[in-house]
Amino acid sequence: MTNLAPAAASNSSAPHVAVVGGGLAGLAAAAALVEAGLGVTVLEARRRAGGRAASFEDPRSGGLVDACQHVAMGCCTNFLDLCRRTGLEPALRRDRTLWFIGPEGDRSRCAPARLLPAPLHLAPLLFGMRHFSLRERAALAAGMLRLARARLEGGAGEGTALDWLRAAGQPERVIRLFWQPVIESALGESIDLVGVAAARKVAVDGFLAHRDAADLVVPTEPLGTLFGERLVAWLESRGAIVRTGAAVTAVDRAADGRAAAVRLAEETLRCDAVVIAVPWKAAGRLVPDLVVTGDESLAGSPITAVHLWFDRDVVDLPHAVLVGRVSQWVFRGERPDDGPAGGYCQVVISASRGLFGGDRDALVAAVVAELREVFPACRAATLVAARVVTDPTAVLSVRPGVDALRPAATTAVPNLFLAGDWTATGWPSTMEGAVRSGRAAAAAAGARLGRHVRGLVADLPKNAVVRLIAGA
Prior knowledge:
Blueprint: E1 2-3, H1 5-8, E2 16-20, H2 24-35, E3 39-44, E4 55-57, E5 64-66, E6 72-73, H3 77-85, E7 92-95, E8 98-101, E9 107-110, H4 123-126, H5 134-149, H6 161-167, H7 172-187, H8 196-208, E10 216-219, H9 223-237, E11 241-244, E12 250-253, E13 259-263, E14 268-270, E15 273-276, H10 280-286, E16 300-310, E17 319-322, E18 329-332, E19 344-350, H11 360-374, H12 376-379, E20 383-396, E21 416-418, H13 431-449, H14 464-470
Parallel strand pairs: 1-14, 2-3, 2-15, 3-11, 8-17, 15-21
Antiparallel strand pairs: 4-5, 6-10, 7-10, 8-9, 12-13, 13-14, 16-19, 16-20, 17-18, 18-19
C-alpha cells in the first residue's frame, strides 16, 4: 500500500482525505479541505476533471464548447462563494434580464426591480410578459404567492407540481407558457413528474426571496477550462493532488469498519477519510451497503443540448426562454474578444426523454425551424453543422418523496462521506446542490479528523415580508 498523505499535503503530518470523483461536488469538497490544511487527493476516472460540467472541441474553431450549457442564479450562494474564493468569479457574467419569446414570437424583456423590496421586486418581471393577458399575469402573480405560502407538511407535498398548479386554479395557458418551461429548466424534470416541494423551492428561493435571487449567472469561459483546468490548478497550487484517468474500483475497510484505503486498477492508496463524490449508481457499486440503487428509487432525468453552427450570427440575444415550443432555452455563443462568435448557438431541452423517438435529424430540423420563426437573421442563414448531446441521467429526478431517499453526507462508516447533487442537500440537482454537497461532506470529514473546515455559506437574506409569506 502507498500512503499519499506526505506527498499531497503541504503539512506532511496533516490527515489525508481521498476524494473519489472530480466533478463539481468533489472539487468543492477538495477546495474546502485544502483550505483547512488537510491533505487531499482527488481521483477522477475521466480524462478531465469537471464531471458533467464538461466541454468538447468546436469542429469549426478548434476551441471548446460546453457539452450542455450550465447556468446558476443569484440565489446560488455557495456556488458563487466557491467561484469567488478560487478566483473564478471574473469568468461569470450576471444578467439581470430574462428574455421570454412567446408563441407568436413576441419578445418580453423581464427584469426584477432593483429598488423595490422583495417580493414586490418581481412585479416588473411577472407583469412584463407580453404573451399573457392582464388577467393571466395577475393569475401568475397570485399563483407564485400561493405556492410560496403553501405548507407541505403532513403529506400535503406528495403530489406533483402540475397537479398542485391545476388545483390552485392556475390557467392552463399560464402553466404551459410559464410554469412548465421555468420549472422544467430549473429542475431538469417534467412538470408532471416533479414534486410540488421542489417547485415551491424554485418559486421561493429562485424568485421571491431576494431582489438578486433570479439573476442569471452565465459562465463566459468553457466549463472545461473553468473547472477542469482553472479550479484544478487552484487546488494543485495549494498542495492537493488531482489525478485523472484514475478509476477507483473499491474502498477497503479496516477490521473496525473504518475506511482505510481506496483501490485503483494497479495500486491501493491509504487515507484517513474518504469522500465519495460520484453519481448514485457509481456510489452504489463502491459502497452497496451504504447506497442502495437496485430498486431505481433514485432515478435520473435526461437533458439534451442541440449545438448549431450557422454561417453567420443568428441569435441577437444572449439567451432566451422559448415558450410553447420544443426548444426551451437558447444561448448565443460567447463572442471572443478577437473575432465573431461564428454563428454558434446552443438550445437546451430538459426532461428530453422520447424526443422525436430518438431521431436526432428530426430534432435538429424542428429546433432550426423554431429558431427561424423567432430570429429573423436565422432565416437567411445556412446551417453548417449540428451536434446533439444527451445525458440520459443528467440530474436526479426530484419526484414526490425523493427527498426522503437522498442520503446525508455522513454514513454508518464514521470516516466515509457522500457528496453529489443527488445527496440530501435540500436543493435540486444543480451546480449549487453539487457545491453544497461537497462542502457538507468536507465539513463532516474535518470534524471527524479534528479540523475545522469551512461549511456552507448562508442563503440570501429574506426580509420580514418574505419570511411572513414563505415562513422562516
